[in-house]
Structure formats: structure tokens, C-alpha cells
Amino acid sequence: MEKHQLGRTGPQVSTLGLGCMGMSGMYGPSDRTESIATIHAALDAGINLLDTGDFYGMGHNEMLIGEAIKGVERDDFLLSVKFGALRDPAGAWLGYDARPAAIRNFVAYSLQRLGVDHIDIYRPARLDPNVPIEDQIGAISDLIKAGYIRHIGLSEVGADTIRRAAAIHPIVDLQIEYSLISRGIEDKILPTCRELGIGVTAYGVLSRGLISGHWQKDNVQKDDFRTISPRFQVGNVEKNLELVEALRRIAEAKGATVAQIAIAWVAAKGKDIAPIIGARRRDRLTEALGALSVELSQADMAAIERAIPKDAAAGGRYPEAQLTHLDSEK
User: Which of 112, 184, 250, 324 is the most buried (most CB within 10 A)?
Assistant: First the structure.
């Protein structure tokens, strides 16, 4: 597994990272034993970046990771943690809190659940409009001085916010959705990151399974985010699955799977971009790792982008009400 420096000032990260959110709900039930086995398999394969959020499963995901990494050499993995999202006992979303006092509280609980003495990359999950980004980054930099955090990242923020944050403290990466059917960052956000020497950890590279080549319309279960995702709704999903079939023809010609082509495309967009793979099972992880063996020429990249043109997806990547709260969409 190759490793690259994350941004100008960040740690060495594996070409692929493992996103653990789906192991704690969001996409229907998951198996705890299989989830832990998948984390172990990822570490054995050389993946060193584990991504989570303190609100994934309302703490469940951090405790799951804490169980999985128990006994693993601390230098063999990096923990990327998002914070700030608020939820009620029923799991409903209540907004965001990035006040300095709240940040200190959040990190204390994360350290306890994960069972570690420091977090490698800490980031606000979304921009809290009630707290200046300068105050948020300043609070995290204080935690770096205290030894609890190593690096600061951002998530789903726009170019202006990135610049303001970077003026306060070095930012190692921006975590943001990026895939063949979610390419909005190419206009302003990605150029800004590259100008400032900030890496990108790309989530949603398979668009929540939509462009994995495996997803079928009867796959959605209760409590699955895809029941409200615009791209999975009747009228949109049929058009989006047509794009998948166009990608499948390219994949078959390359002797690869649809998922492998989609992952390889993101990885080929730059060594400063690390795709985060949301595998919940070892077989899906194995398939994703196969993307590392897929070599895409310029002609291949052009063919892929002809098959799935920019802005070809039907429906937004989040429901409209959620998009209005994304600084990256402004």
C-alpha cells in the first residue's frame, strides 16, 4: 500500500482510507463481528486511515473502532474524527455546536470511547454558522498544544472558509464528497486546497453505493439514508442507474468491476486526494483494494467522463434542506 503525505503539513496516509460510518447504521443494519473483522483486514492490507464521527451511531462507531484497535500499535493507524453534530435520543438531527467549550467536551468523550490518548485529525463535521471558523480552529489548535490532537482538518466547507481557517492554523485536509457524479469541488474548492497545500479525503466515492455496480432498487431498508436521498428517488434513480450501466461497459473492457473503476477514477485525479472507502464487509473491502491495480490512461479517464459527464446525475447529493446548511454548496 503506497502512502502519501496528507497536505503540506500532514501525516503519511495510505492511498485508500476506511470510512466506518456505515458500521453504525445510516445504511441499515450491520454486523459487529464483520465490521471489526473488516477494520482488521483493512489494517492488514496497509490502510492506516480510519475515519469516523462522534455522532455516528451516537458514539457507537467510536466504541466499535476502539474495540477493533485495541492491542494494535498506535503508530499503525491514524484516527480522523468529525465532531459537532447534535442528535436527540431518537436519533434526530438537531444542528451543530462548535463553541470552544463544546469542542473540548466532544474531544474528551471521543478519546474515552476510542481508548486512545490522542486523535490524529480532528475536524468540525459542518460549519457552525453561530461560531466564527477562526474560533473553532483556535480551539482545536489549543488542543494540539495540550497533546490531545495532532492535526486539524475541515469538512464540507467552501473556499472562503478554507482560506479563513488556514490563516489561523495549518489545515492538513478537507473531507468532502467527490465522485464521478459529485464533482462540484472541481470548480473552486479543489483549486483552493491545492493552492494552500491542503489534501482532500474524498468520501462518497461510490455515491452511497449508487455507482458501486451492486445496488438495486429493492436494497433500501428502514432507517437507511438512501430512503431520503434525492438520487435514489423514483424518477432519478432510473436515470442514475443508466449511468452505472455505461460505466459497467468500460469496467468490463478493463477487466475490472464498476466499483473499482469508480474508485480508481477518484484516485487518479491526484495524489493529494485519498478516497475513503465505506466498506462494511471484507468482500467489499477486497473489491475496493482491487482498484489499486487498475491503471487508467488519459484515454480511459476521458472515456469514463464521457460515460458519466459532469453534472449528469439526477438529483442532489443531499435533500435540499440539508444542502442549505452546507457551506461547501454556497
Answer: 250
